[in-house]
From TrEMBL:
Organism, as annotated: Nitrososphaera gargensis (strain Ga9.2)
Identification of the protein by name: Putative glycosyltransferase
GO molecular function, one term: glycosyltransferase activity
Keywords, sorted A to Z: Transferase
Coiled coil spans: none
CDD domains given in the database record: GT4_PimA-like
Length: 406
């Protein structure tokens, strides 16, 4: 049995003396990581609340992670009020409406009032951890804050728009900056206005008790026979960031050697049609099954139904999909920048690093043709994620960073 609660006996409030009487706010919920961290900190008896913007993208709602959403729901058009009725949210979640989806000119005063209300909320706490884009506003709250970056730093340093200038200032004024994507060290290292000593790495939190090997034979049987190979990629279709086109071309080569295979891909984002056209031009449309984005409880079933999971092949690190799949004991193919991954973790992960079409295809064949190798890679993957990404390990790291920011 996995020792997923290896630090459960730690008295956190004794260990982190300065946090004994502190009220913490995690503001925002990028990739549901705010929810994962807050949930674990609550288990550790830390006084933390999570503030969730109900007009945010559907995948940033806790309901996407732990609610009872249908697999037919569209994350781009989720009704936040309706979503909350699908479960009993914890009392430590505070919902607010940042009015993302209403026209600025028509509702200018309401938007201004929502920003004022947000700053008032911040002032109820002793320290804040701000997800995108809330460090823009926390810099005016008078409360110490940590900026949490899950990739936003790839965009705002390069524009002179007013919002981007505020974003840069918000990061500069933060007590610390948490970076979740190791490849973005390459960017932060080159920004002269950021103090490098306050930029700290902390991975996404993955709950090993939720993301674990499960029986998904029924779902698998919808797509392949038991002896066939089933691939799965949950990645958004954005070629210039994710490299989906390389992955599809690699699969076209792979399927010539492993014809008894199917590939499930998720149909979402700007290059969805381009990916479908590419598959058609390569003559493999009948080998690819397209599904819509599914909430996490269903996504876990897809991880477990598959033999190999493929993520992204451009950026050089990972979001939540790779560690989720690895925690479900599945081998994953992804491209990672070795120097930045070692800088973040002190070692390389048990992943077959793949950048070119040839590398993706070759590593797919290694895994597909050797069941024992697949099993070993899956087992090592789960062990590594528990060591590096498990909720308790990551939550303690967040608490350590917050304490050092006071």
């Amino acid at each position: 049995m996995d020792s997923v609660n290896q630090y459960a006996a730690i008295n956190v409030k004794a260990k982190y003396e300065n946090m004994k009487h502190m009220r913490i706010l995690i503001l925002g919920n990028m990739a549901n990581d705010g929810y994962a961290v807050a949930k674990e900190l609550r288990k550790m008896n830390v006084d933390v609340d999570l503030a969730v913007n109900i007009s945010d993208f559907g995948m940033a709602l806790p309901e996407w992670e732990d609610g009872t959403m249908s697999d037919k729901i569209d994350p781009y058009s989720i009704d936040g009020d309706a979503a909350r009725k699908m479960w009993n949210p914890p009392c430590w979640i505070r919902y607010f409406d940042f009015l993302n989806k209403v026209p600025r000119k028509k509702h200018m005063m309401a938007k201004i009032q929502s920003r004022i209300n947000l700053i008032r909320m911040m002032r109820e706490y002793d320290i804040i951890e701000c997800h995108v884009p809330f460090s823009i506003y926390s810099q005016f709250s008078g409360i110490p804050y940590v900026a949490y970056d899950a990739g936003w730093i790839r965009y705002f340093p390069y524009s002179n728009g007013f919002r981007d200038k505020l974003a840069r200032r918000g990061y500069r004024k933060a007590r610390k900056i948490i970076i979740t994507n190791p490849d973005t060290f390459e960017i932060s290292d080159g920004l002269p206005y950021l103090d490098k000593d306050k930029i700290l790495f902390c991975p996404f939190a993955i709950d090993p008790e939720k993301y674990r090997p499960l029986d998904a034979k029924e779902l698998r049987a919808r797509y392949v026979n038991e002896s066939d190979i089933l691939l799965f990629s949950p990645t958004r279709q954005i070629w210039n960031e994710k490299g989906n086109d390389k992955m599809i071309r690699a699969y076209a080569k792979f399927v010539k050697e492993v014809p008894n295979s199917k590939f499930i891909m998720v149909a979402w984002s700007i290059d969805e049609d381009n990916s479908k056209r590419l598959a058609s031009s390569l003559g493999i449309s009948d080998k690819i099954e397209w599904i819509k984005p599914v909430p996490k409880n269903q996504l876990i079933q897809y991880y477990n139904a598959s033999d190999i999971v493929l993520d992204q092949f451009i950026l050089g690190s990972w979001g939540t999909s790779t560690p989720e799949a690895m925690c479900c004991q599945k081998p994953v193919l992804i491209f990672y920048k070795k120097n930045y991954i070692i800088r973040a973790f002190g070692e390389e992960p048990p992943i077959l690093n793949s950048f070119t079409e040839e590398e993706i295809c070759s590593n797919l064949l290694k895994l597909a043709k050797n069941l024992d190798f697949r099993a070993v890679m899956g087992k090592k993957s789960r062990e590594w994620i528990i060591k590096t990404h498990s909720s308790r390990v990551v939550a303690e790291r967040h608490l350590e960073i917050l304490e050092s920011s006071l």
